[in-house]
Fold this protein.
Amino acid sequence: MELTELCFAGVARQAQAVRSGEVTARDLLAEHLRRIERIDPRLNAFRLVFAEQALAEAERADERRSAGEDLPLLGVPIAVKEDIAVAGLPTTKGTNAARTPQPADSAIVTRLRAAGAVIIGRTRMPELGLWPFTESSWAGPTRNPWSLAHSPGGSSGGSAAAVAAGLAAAAIGTDGAGSIRIPAAMTGLFGLKPQRGRVSLSPEPQMLGGLVVAGPITRTVADWALVADQIHGATPGDAHAAHPPRTSFTQAARTDPGRLRIGVSLRPWGPGIPVADEVRDVVQDTAALLTDLGHDVVRLDPPMRDVTASTQFAARYVHNAYLARTGMELPDLVEPRTRAVSELGRRVPRGVARWAAKDDAALTAYANRVFASIDVLLTPALTRPPIRVGEWDGRNVVTALLAAAHYTTFLPLWNIVGNPAASVPAGRTSAGLPLAVQLVGRQHDECTLLSVSAQLERARPWADRVPSGLDHAN
């Protein structure tokens, strides 16, 4: 396999190539760095590329292999989002408002290194992760490898763009209202938001009041499982801890799910939100495929207490933005759009902020009633195909937030209640842009989602498709 082809082969294949001696870790890393140098000026996926440090790590991986050491991710280049702590660097969170270097790696980075991964760089996000696109006035837009006129989503947009373009085997993202699933959906990748507490966010006990989780964005389901097997688990001080998975994630991805009862919902979380015809079509096509695969698929549109819950989430979201901005070292350095969202959060009355942040137990129980009659819920991932770069630039902050909420309406509920939820590639638009569906599982049950997602991948493969033109365009 040629090196360029190997860059698109994913985590498991790259690990096998290094393990077998088909390629050295140094040569694999060097090819990724060459691709970044050539392609990333057009994509803007990386905030920082750790070229010298990564080459040293790759050489060390080759030494370890020569010494007979075998690790699950040995020599595999993986990128991390810029809200994840890396020793010696400030945790910038998409801003220029952080200066103090972190004294140590986050638990995620520590575990990746322990598994042999080479940390190739730090990927971009919008300021404080507030938007479903990755753009800022000072850093410019991050672009979608499938169409440079379109966004790769957000807030883990840099992570998804890097993986889709073959600039990293996998990348770690975070998801507080869809921020793993949105970019995965927009770039044709697999992105599963794990159960709250599955992956430690240490050194932070939690992010955005418990809404945020971290997890991989990968080319295949098996790749996600392999990376997640290395990074999951709580650490002392974590605010949340998930129940142990019933098997390894890798085993789950290899296991036939059996006959499941799958509910299909096209009902947005709020009135008057349109769903594009192409999105409806891929949900219905996926439902038909799941039926053909032997599952019992039923239409199910459960009431989700739309107005109260979505209002509560909106207040919580902008208040958390205010808290996040004021918690930065240099809060005045954030861009005007971020300040405007923060100002909305500052204006939330204290009593409303307390109400918005209160225990989610009642909503969690209510939302999870659906799983009394089904095993998995199938919905759209987004309400329309990928948005264009700068599409909402002319809007004031309130109308931009409303547009974002409508676009991502099927996603945030599962951050509030904590359930695992996956974005699964599901075809293309008439213009060739990626489309996806969302699969939601019972609490703590990523394993079922991995099994059925892998079954869909076998029946409708997606990972062999790669963006054209990146290697040849000027």
Observations:
- The first strand starts at residue 46 and ends at 49.
- The longest helix spans residues 306-326.
- The chain has one domain: 3-459.
